[in-house]
Specification:
The protein is of the alpha+beta class. It is 37% helix and 28% strand. The strands form 2 sheets. Strands 1, 2, 3, 4, 5, 6, 8 and 12 form an 8-stranded mixed β-sheet that branches. A 4-stranded antiparallel β-sheet has the order 9-10-7-11, sandwiched between helices. The protein binds 4-diphosphocytidyl-2-C-methyl-D-erythritol (CDM) and adenosine-5'-triphosphate. Catalyzes the phosphorylation of the position 2 hydroxy group of 4-diphosphocytidyl-2C-methyl-D-erythritol.
């Protein structure tokens, strides 16, 4: 019997620009994705039967074949049938700490951890880019989650250009536990509100996507300048999520009014909102002030920090 434990970090979006919609129904994006140390733990145990089973401590997370961790294992079984026949099924235990349906890539990072873990369990020796290609079949955020760090992501989010390591920038993260925003809804609503922006000219598309590489926020990241990064953050999906979810807007405004907050933004399709702060001590102060302003038990608050890694192998 063999087993592996992996750490699967969440992400935030420092930048999310919708460049246009694509014929496949997805949106062409220019994003900057950032790993944070808020993470789930994934335990993989080789089983003596052919079954793939998922266990999770979070009541809102399905444990059937719709779980992204299950789907990652099923994809590996399909891609590598000889290894699957040889090694058999597995038990996957997901210890959830990342809030669910939060815009933090919780399911995607679990899927990435299962890909990395099965590669080890079955001695496949896959490269990082092979793992990322498999990940892209499971979801747009999965390829990033494999190696994580600070990355420019274009295409539908799967084309990755790593930037410098951005360690230890402190973040306060807030999410109403019972509030969920569907990613598909956010993109669909954006298209309805702002109209179809289908770009036929591929050169134009490439030029617009590559503009982010020379953008001001990238310069601020390369300079590791947290204040300037905070000023240049952007998320197009805020334009549809904030008007539809007053609680998210309220959190965003509350963060913005706090002393010590360098900048605040919704992550991905929301509803989590994060604030960049000057130090760990300042983060604790801001967290307590938000807790006092909104003494609602439904509001989850975390102090976290940026990290330079994606999936890590614990043992
Ligand atoms: C909002 C973000 O989290 C920002 O990082 C991602 O863009 C979404 O990543 P994800 O949840 O892994 O997305 P997927 O599972 O691939 O897609 C969920 C849904 O979001 C929409 N979607 C997603 C990515 C993209 N580039 N364009 C889209 O329109 C599609 O309607 C899709 O059905
Ligand atoms: N392993 C998993 N962890 C969390 N949610 C999962 C998982 N597998 C399937 N789901 C389902 O996926 C939905 C989206 O959850 P998830 O936490 O991945 O969203 P998210 O953080 O908004 O993702 P993203 O930022 O990639 O759009 C949930 O409602 C949940 O039912």
């Amino acid at each position: 019997m063999r087993s592996y434990s992996l750490i699967a970090p969440a992400k935030i979006n420092l930048y999310l620009e919708i460049i246009g919609d694509r014929p496949d129904g997805y949106h062409e994006l220019a994003m900057i994705l950032q790993s944070i140390d808020l993470a789930d733990q994934i335990d993989l145990h080789a089983a003596s039967t052919e079954a793939i089973r998922v266990y999770c401590n979070h009541p809102q997370v399905p444990t059937d074949n719709s779980n992204l961790a299950y789907r990652a294992a099923a994809l590996m079984a399909k891609q590598f049938p000889d290894a699957f026949n040889n090694f058999g099924g597995m038990d996957i235990t997901v210890k959830k700490r990342i809030p669910v349906a939060a815009g933090l890539a919780g399911g995607s990072t679990n899927a990435a951890a299962v890909l990395v873990g099965i590669d080890l369990l079955w001695n496949l020796g896959l490269t990082k880019s092979e793992l990322e290609e498999l990940g892209a079949q499971l979801g747009s955020d999965v390829p990033f989650c494999v190696s994580g760090g600070t990355v420019i992501a274009t295409g539908r989010g799967e084309q990755l250009s790593p930037l410098t390591s951005l360690n230890n920038i402190y973040i306060v993260l807030a999410k109403y536990h019972s509030l969920e925003v569907s990613t598909a809804w956010a993109y669909k609503t954006y298209r309805q509100v702002f109209g179809s922006t289908y770009i036929k000219n591929t050169e134009d598309l490439a030029a617009r996507a590559s503009a982010v590489h020379s953008g001001e926020i990238v310069k601020a990241i390369l300079d590791k300048d947290a204040a300037e990064i905070s000023r240049k953050m952007h998320n197009d999906l805020e334009k549809v999520v904030l008007p539809a979810y007053p609680q998210v807007l309220q959190l965003r405004e509350l963060f913005a009014s706090q002393e010590g907050v360098l900048g605040t933004m919704m992550s991905g399709s929301g509803p989590s909102v994060f604030a960049i702060v000057e130090s760990k001590a300042q983060a604790e102060v801001v967290k307590e002030r938000i807790r006092s302003a909104i003494p609602d038990e439904d509001l989850e608050l975390f102090v976290t920090r940026t990290i330079a890694t994606g999936i890590q192998i614990l043992k």
